[in-house]
Amino acid sequence: MSVAPVLTVERLRVGYPGRDGSIEAVRDVSLGVDAGECVGIVGESGSGKTQLCLAVMGLLPSNARIDGIVRFAGAPGDAVRTVRGERIAMVFQDPQTALTPHLRIGTQMTEVLVHHRRIAVREAREAARAMLARVGISDPARCLRRYPHELSGGMRQRVLIATSLLCAPQLLIADEPTTALDVTVQAQVLELLARLRREQRMAILLVSHDLAVVAGLAARIVVMYAGRVVEEAPADALFRSPRHPYTAALIACAPNPDGPIPARMATLPGRPPGATERFAGCPFVSRCDRSVERCRHEPPPMVALDDGRRFACHEPLPA
Amino acid sequence: MKAAAAPSPLLEAQALRVEYRAARGLLARDRVIAVDDVGFSLDPGETLGLVGESGSGKSTLARAILRLVPVAGGRVLWRGEDLLRWDRRLLREQRRGMQIVFQDPFASLDPRMTVVETIEEPLRIFEPALGRRERHARVLGMLERVGLGAGAMHRYPHEFSGGQCQRIGIARAMMSEPQLLVCDEPVSALDVSIQGQIVNLLADLQRESRIALLFISHNLSVVRHLSHRVLVMYRGRLVETATREALFAAPRHPYTRALLAAVPRLPRPGIDPFATPAPVAAALDAPAAPSVGGCAYRERCPFAAPICAALAPALEPVEPDHAVACHRLEAQAP
User: What is the dihedral of CA B192, B198, B199, B202, to 10 degrees?
Assistant: First the structure.
């Protein structure tokens, strides 16, 4: 690859001490994001997506046990603290709680610039105004004077995205950025992210439980299950021929707004294993319709193909 | 109660209007019209989908027909009787026929009550003569119907996943054998992989009990799967009503079209996910306060004309079972 990765995660583990044995939130995850690339991470709640993001950002609580390597554009892992908010930014799921309720939007937005860039407040305010206009806020000057509760959910999320972009980060981590939003606003936010990626060559790590949300934006998709990566592939290949049965099940479950209506919605029976569960074999075995005896005892190794795909399954679907 | 004739609707709303008073400064109060001149009917065993974005008034409408919020005008006929005229006692009696399932499966369950305590509560209210053993037998039967076993009875909500909590909420609502189940965003808080389970469960319950569903959701794919007819709401008014087939195959209102175009899609044969989406809205920000008079959608509508500001469009039939409130139908390509 000629492009240098902006983010490299190697053999990352995140665990917590718990009363009933330790909790393993992320179990041996490796992935990379290239400059200007959008990588999607998909998985059900509890699959470790958010813990992975927080680990990359260095925002995990102090009782977390972290093992492995997080490298940002060549800098060693410890350096994340110094680049957080400036070269890496994160947008969270819930735009209601991510803003401080008693501070005006302008105060919250300019704080970031004043802290990281040490520029004058007036200058920071102008930058904030310009960024609000870029994310499609129709009256940015007025928006700066408002409090979070005076804005709609879509406006709040766009304010958060604008805030995270003020320092022109090389990587934006977006954790379920549209889950709390209406479909029309969701479409606008996704379109905005696509535009920023194109125009600023900003890399995006887009996290969602909804394959359809990442489908329109991510060139590469990582599927997580029970804290592990079970499949990774270029988006078109993943949708055309998923190799891991879990990926195939997620695709089948995605509700379809077009085409014939089936008598019953496709479902994935059962639920993912809990974070305290240990498994000798494949974590998906209890829900898998292709499982064989060895899936119970032997963890499936990650198989990497030369077209950029990898998957961990003893009985993969045919290519 | 009068016995209803066979083809008559279970529930009918006529010119329903709900208003809130919103604070504006210290003393001034603004009147906000949350539901404006809404009419629809729902037959026994039918599923009516209700879609619209947050703030469109869909939840308020659902609460209004259950008399959970005060109604400012119009009528709500339950098997032909105006339930807005019922006194408290009659309302309480009749409520067993109309139940609701909420969006947040955790918040809608009492964390200090076991599953059996939660689910038997409607029985304690509506069938106080029932003994404990009989109540528990009924709870067990219902748990099995919603796909949870006897093992769930003495556990607490925090021991269950979101999908299982939603099953508990559905079991509680079904306990009084209602004829109407209002589902207010019942799958929106759930993983995509779990949504189908709850949708299939609702479909099964409807087939077994001929229960009518008012299914509120902003997820159009799920609404399409479950509904017989669909109402589209914008800023408190119905902008389009149609059968499921007509609404999804040939939507007429610009807002309905924008909603459908905005649904994220998986790449499927013949559909390019990277294709430029249809124009969603001319303006990104919906105005904070609805404009007075005229069509409420006009600020976002790419087809708006002077008449749209002058006159609120009425909901008018374009085909049998398909009505649209828009002045500019002829301006759009079909």
Answer: -170
Q: Is the minimum CB–CB distance between A317 and chain B shorter than 8 Å?
A: no
**Cβ neighbours of B268 in A, within 8 Å:** 256, 258-259
Q: How far is A209 from chain B (nearest CA, A)?
A: 6
Q: Residue type for B151, please?
A: G
Longest CA–CA span in chain A (Å) reads: 67
Tell whether B188 lies on the interface with A, counting CB pairs under 8 A.
Answer: no
Dist. CA B45–CA B241, nearest whole Å: 18
Cα atoms in the Cβ-side hemisphere of radius 13 Å centred on A54: 18
Of the partner residues A137, A153, A253, the one whose CB lies closest to the CB of residue B54: A153
Cβ distance of B264 and A183 shorter than 8 Å: yes
Determine the structural domain holding residue A264 and report its residue range: 5-97+169-312
Q: Does B218 touch chain A (CB under 8 A)?
A: yes
CATH of the domain at A81: 3.40.50.300
What is the ipTM for the molecules in this complex? Answer: 0.84
pLDDT in tens, B251-288: 999 999 999 999 998 886 555 444 444 444 434 455 54
Q: Given a cut of 80, is residue B180 above it in pLDDT?
A: yes
The helix-helix angle for A121-134 and A105-117 (nearest 10°) equals 120
Distance in angstroms (rounded) separating the CA atoms of residues A182 and B220: 11
Over residues A167-209, the pLDDT tens digits come to 888 999 999 988 877 888 888 889 889 988 998 889 999 999 9
Say if pTM beats, i.e. exceeds, 0.90: no
Residue B291 forms contact with A (CB below 8 Å) = no
Number of structural domains chain A divides into: 1
Number of domains in chain B: 1
Domain membership flag for residue A143: no
Q: Is A194 on the interface with B (CB under 8 A)?
A: no
* Distances from the Cα of B313 to the Cα of B39, B293, B316, B323, B329, angstroms: 15, 10, 9, 12, 11
Give A-chain residues touching B285 at CB under 8 angstroms.
Answer: 136-138, 152, 154-155
In a domain, B97, yes or no: no
